[in-house]
Amino acid sequence: MLKGVVEGSAIATIKHPSMRGWKLLVVQPIGQDGGPDGDPLLAIDMLGAGHGTQVVISNDGRGAREMVGDNTSPVRWAVIGIVD
Fold first, then answer.
1. Structural domains in the chain (count)
2. Which of 4, 7, 11, 13 has a CB 3.0–4.6 Å from the CB of 27, allowing a cystine?
3. How many CB atoms lie within 10 A of CB 68?
4. In which domain, by residue range, is 12 found?
C-alpha cells in the first residue's frame, strides 16, 4: 500500500474489456517526507476521488482483478481509501 495524491484522470479510447466503466486516476505516490516518491501510477477508482485528493492505493493485482471481476485483467493498482 502507498499513500498518494491524485494528479488527474486518464481517458483511454481502447482498453481491456474488464476496465470498461472504471474511473482511471493518475496517482503520484508520496514519500515519508511528504514529497513525490517515484513515478505516477495508474489506478482504478470506485470511491470517487478527485484531483488533489490524498488516497491510499494498493498494488494487490489479484484483489484489483477481483474488483473488476476478470482474472485476465491487466489492472494492478486500485484506490482503496481516501485520506481525511
1. 1
2. 4
3. 20
4. 2-82
Determine how many CB atoms are found less than 10 A away from the CB of residue 12. 10
Distance from C-alpha of 81 to C-alpha of 39, rounded to nearest angstrom: 20
pLDDT digit string (tens) for 12-61?
889 899 998 899 999 999 999 989 999 999 999 999 999 999 999 999 98
* Rounded Cα gap, residues 53 and 8, in angstroms: 10
Helices (H) and strands (E) in the chain, counts: 1, 5
* Three cell numbers, residue 1: 500500500
CATH number, domain with residue 14? 2.40.50.220
